[in-house]
Write a structure and sequence with these properties.
This protein is α/β, with parallel strands linked by helices and 557 residues long. The protein contains 15 helices and 34 strands.
Amino acid sequence: MKKRFVFVFALCLVFTLSLIYAEDYVVSNSADWQDVYSAVLYANLRGLNSDFLVSTSHGPTLLDGINKNNDLIIISSKDNPLVFNYPSLARSKGFNSVEEIEVSSANLELIRELPNIRNFIVVGDAYGYNSMAVVAYSLATDSWVFLANRGNIDEIDSILQGRADKIILYGYVDSEVTEALSKYNPEIINTGDRFQDNIEIVKKYSTVGSINQIILSNGEFIEKEIMQGKNTMLFTGRENVPPKIAEYIKSSEIEIGVLIGNELIGAATNIRQSTGINVMVKFARSARERTSGVSPVEGLDLFYIPVPNLNISVYSIKYNKASSRLEITYKSDSNMPAYLRGTITIITPSGPIRVGDLDEVFIAPGDFKTVVYEGVVISGEEASAEVYVLYGESPASLDRVLQGTYEIEMVNIIDRCELDIKWLKYNKQENSFVVKLKNKVSVECWASVELKDIVINRITQTIGTEESEKLLPKRSKRIYMYELLTESDLTKNNFIKVVSYYGERRDSLVNTKEVRMELNYQRFNFLTYIIFILIFAILIFIIFFIIARKRDKDDED
């Protein structure tokens, strides 16, 4: 009897322990980074372990690393799963409890499963690194992160109504997002510089958690440790560490940095040398598939997220003997505006000559930009240039490096172009700035336009044309730059600095004209006015026609 009691007690104990041990385990099955981010965030806010697929072939391997006693919750994309019928594969791998949640938009749907969440962080969905920067703070403050744009802000607004205690707008978001959420009186962290924004959120995290140890990354991929939020993340930059990041580290309590991914070792090395903190590199994990011999390792599970493409190259370097000017032309292969600052060392038989930029140079996406250095004297017919250029998304965050040695082409050209900037207007119907340029000479000229220090969505920035425009001899042309401005933006831009770069060669706009102009507004474009006039003329004609017919009828009577 006693043995039977012990046996029954043991069975009950095993059963009870199995129930305690079995936990929900979330797995994301989607090719959409927003689904992956949201599913892992959902799991961490619930206090659950989680993983995510990074490819179709990753499906079986991922399951090999998860304890079979866990109850799987697979969050699959309805439209874009990486593995179809993933629950079936999980059951074949030995999982007994498998639940699948299908989502069209995990970011908007999973928050409905977290009714107790009343704090929210809103970031723009176009800049994935902003969502990564806020992970630790969101988990420390039980906050859901919305990935917002002008298309989904109405649905986000409907979710927030009645349950939003605190909202933070972080980084750049569409102006429609800012306008829609202004009624909630959100805290706004948006300096126009992603590195400074990152520092600000780390400062906020330091009030709710420890920053003795931080994660170093570029914010361009989802990784499990980053998403757990145990340590906040500081951006390293790609190749060059922005001085503000190094200065903040030196002035803070940070002692240890954990670098995620080995492609940033160069930047992390710079941080260690310039700040003195200890830096460890996490670049691999133990293999999930066991083999004989030495235990192998495998790469980290990294889900790369879309980030703006930023790439600048040297298009040409010319020395114009006619004007004693060095002309270096850069080409932007970026899909966003960029800023650069170069140092050029000219190697000549008589010795080196060094020139450079005192201020950051703006270059529009897909455009050329020629930087001219006056008063350069190069004797002889051969010379080369050692180019060292820092560039980045904002003037204060030049985190990338362009470096190389190039031959200098000798030319002897007198550029005859002259132009006037006649006026500047903003067309509310077309959401565009319009600048009228006048070619004053009898040769074809090419020109591009920049508008500097414009306030858009609370941020001071520069916008410009994405390619140079042809101006026929002695003719004028309207140049359009499309940018949505709210009424609030318009009131903050009464005067604007207009800069035109121009020249006879399309890829060498070596002349510059700069004026400060008052911004006038157009409610409609020229074609609309013509349509109004035609409609008015037709109405007048109809009225006169009716009057004439009535008179003829009266005469007949």
